């Protein structure tokens, strides 16, 4: 089977839609449909079931697509190994990054990296910190995670991120005690919730009268900036443009700032790839 056939099967499985797959492959739908028919004839089985709702893999198709993905992945790995001793730095850098960090911190870092190493391809997945370890065990080179995880490989502290109570009118914790404003809470991992709950109990604050739950931190922030309620946000999500609101740093019972730590995770085998070491070195120089 040709490499292009493997790519076709992989993209069709990802998109589950002939039109979108054709757009990604820069071919017409009829040409792609004809090519798929030829691939299926070569395998002697139906790989995809066609319907008005799109494409779905048959049982045989699942095995064939798994083979296609594994073959492409192995080829990419071999190519990277072949060029690992050459001067130029290229290959694929596989990153797994906590969503908040990926949204507010990573873009500036990646901008510097791709400008310095334009030949490197970036593969990026984001998720809650609790998901990043799973991605690391599945083959990502570097994980950027919030909190302080247990990790047997290499671990490097990147930065501390202070938490702030953000509101358009509340300027102190004492005002919060008397307030009936809604608390706006964004979805995050359980360790973040636990830190907030501990802070809440340490200061003997009553539970909010009303809580508004939102999926995304940016939605939470915009609602707080528009006076709908107050929110607890990490400093990295706040910019100089957000000066029209009060930002009260949270402190524990000992008067220390409440922070979220951000760590880089990797392992010795990954650091043998020049593009991985280059990214780690860039972050080390930035800190």
Automatic annotation (TrEMBL):
Q: Which domain of life is it from?
A: Bacteria
Q: Which organism is it from?
A: Scopulibacillus cellulosilyticus
User: What's this protein's family per the entry?
Assistant: Belongs to the LysR transcriptional regulatory family.
Sorted UniProt keywords: DNA-binding, Transcription, Transcription regulation
Q: Name one Pfam family in it.
A: LysR_substrate
PROSITE patterns (UniProt xref): HTH_LYSR
Q: Where is the HTH lysR-type domain positioned along the sequence?
A: 1-58
InterPro entries per the UniProt record, alphabetical: LysR_HTH_N, LysR_subst-bd, WH-like_DNA-bd_sf, WH_DNA-bd_sf
Q: What is this protein called?
A: LysR family transcriptional regulator
Signal peptide residues on this chain, from the entry's feature table: none
